[in-house]
Amino acid sequence: MKLGFEDLQAPFRSGSQNARAWTERWVADWVYCPNCGNPKINQLPANLPVADFLCPSCGDQYELKSQKKPFGAKVVDGAFSKKQERLASSSSPNLLLLNYDLSEQSVRNLCIVPKHFFVPEVIEERKPLAPTARRAGWIGSNILLSQIPQSGRVFIVQDGRPLSKDSVLTKWRRTLFLRNETTEARGWLIEVMNCLDSMGKREFTLDEAYAFEDTLAAIYPQNRNVRPKIRQQLQFLRDRGYLEFVSRGRYKLRTSD
Ligand SMILES: [Zn+2]
Fold this sequence. Notes:
Elements: H1 15-30, E1 42-43, E2 53-54, E3 61-67, E4 74-79, H2 80-88, E5 94-101, E6 106-113, E7 123-125, E8 140-144, E9 154-158, E10 161-162, H3 165-174, H4 183-199, E11 203-205, H5 206-210, H6 213-219, H7 226-239, E12 243-247, E13 250-253
Parallel strand pairs: 3-5
Antiparallel strand pairs: 1-2, 2-3, 4-8, 5-6, 6-9, 7-8, 9-10, 11-13, 12-13
The structure holds zinc ion.
Zinc ion (ZN) is lined by residues 33, 35-36, 38, 55, 57-58, 60.
């Protein structure tokens, strides 16, 4: 994988439009499908509202966001109502987050968030545009990257270094079981994954997981049985190979990196 941009023509007057063209070309040239391992993903015709790239082998779609600043806690996305609608459908795209270095004209980071991590909890509704705006009243959305667990941030390039394709595919497959779950079930699992991340260690006890009872109760105020729910999620994650059972009341995160 070469990280520099090819063909640095500047057909547009705006720098960001040129960067968009360069990064799209780079993705089409170098990025493989992390879902099935196909060597290429194909660029879709411009202005298709759905996605930017399509894997010809497995049919997974990809939306590309590229910027020169590293991605922070949130990233601006499209219309909130559309975003909400698509969460429920299986055609939603995976998200490619590409961060480039303009002076080096090359890719610094490429992180992919698999589509199964998109649940209502990570989509934030923005304020309607002011009455003076051209699209007055239009409501956009933010994707809360800070609410995506580590296992849902699959780096293909990190700090200017490509990761091995094997390790990328392994990490991707580790959470693929989420695709078979309903949006609601995924929401719970993803929130519990976030709690486990915030412990900052691989091995933990059931009691340590129960310590997140208040955090989870605040996210799901209608649920009166948070502890049993936590336990159920841990068992589910263990059955899917995300966690290992060490001994009574002790669990361990299985990591691929
Ligand atoms: Zn594929």
